[in-house]
Amino acid sequence: MLGFPLLIAVVAAAGAGEPPSFAAEERTDLLHFSYGWPAEVEAEPTLRARLAGELEAARDDARRTAEQDRAGRGGDFPFNAHDYEKAWRIAGGTDRFLSLAASTHSYTGGAHGNLTFSAILWDRRADRAAEPAALLGAGALERLTPRYCEALDAERAGRRGDPVQRDPEDPFAACPALAGQVLAPADTDGDGRFDTLEVLIPPYVAGPWVEGPYVLEVALREEDLAGLAAQVRDSFEAR
């Protein structure tokens, strides 16, 4: 049982007979909190339990941080309610896998808020999370890296108005390692097979805060799928 004192909302899905999606909200002078996931999660009890546990932990931590901030404020530094918002979305789904990605927006009293990303690739048959890089096999991320870096530089150039001069010593001009980023397989054409790898990069990793996050789509090619095990190959396709 989720212990929200103010509001727990379960929103019915659009289609008759489909499981509902879930949203939990709490709004007080101390904290504005929300956490939600799509309807498909309700059909996966183990995954739902995992997210419910994360929800509780995130709420408790956000409350504790806000209480500490409020207690330490003086008259010249008024307290502003903290914010925490996490929303999971579906990046794609196959008969075997459900790919989820989430953005977390938080404000803890500083000059501006924070933004981070998360992803879960849920193996419905094994009833546990899988790692995209492990499924794609050894060498896959290395093969994808040049296209990922090109996509990142093109996006940075568009935002900055100038081409990026790659510099490994400058974090805002380097290409951060693909293996260190949040990765979510995606189904861009809706046919029930993953054809793209979403790369989710928060502020300060590839550019300053003012540039915002970078969400890149790297199309999968046949050579990227060569390392897939036979039992999961039908969940992927080249684009």
Plain-language structure description:
This protein folds into two domains: 7-130, Fervidobacterium nodosum Rt17-B1 like (Heat Shock Protein 90, 2-Layer Sandwich); 132-235. Helix content is 24%, strand content 30%. It has four helices and ten strands; from the N terminus they run βββααββββααβββ. It has a seven-stranded mixed sheet. It has a three-stranded antiparallel sheet with strand order 8-9-10. The longest helix has 27 residues, at 45-71. The protein is flat, with a radius of gyration of 20 Å. The termini are far apart. Mean pLDDT is 91; it is low at 1-18.
Number of helices: 4
Question: For the record, what CATH class of the largest domain applies?
Answer: Alpha Beta
How confident overall, as mean pLDDT?
91
User: What is the count of distinct domains?
Assistant: 2
Uncertain spans:
1-18
By DSSP, the count of extended strands is 10
Order of helices and strands: EEEHHEEEEHHEEE
Instruction: Report, as a whole number of angstroms, the end-to-end distance.
Output: 43 Å
CATH topology grouping of the largest domain: Heat Shock Protein 90
Strand content: 25-35%
CATH architectural category of the largest domain? 2-Layer Sandwich
- What is the CA-atom radius of gyration, in angstroms? 20 Å
For the sheet with most strands, the description reads: 7 strands, mixed
**Overall helicity:** 10-25%
Structural class: alpha+beta
Mass-distribution shape: flat
**Any idea what the CATH superfamily of the largest domain is called?**
Fervidobacterium nodosum Rt17-B1 like
Biggest β-sheet: strands ordered side by side in the sheet: 1-2-3-4-5-6-7
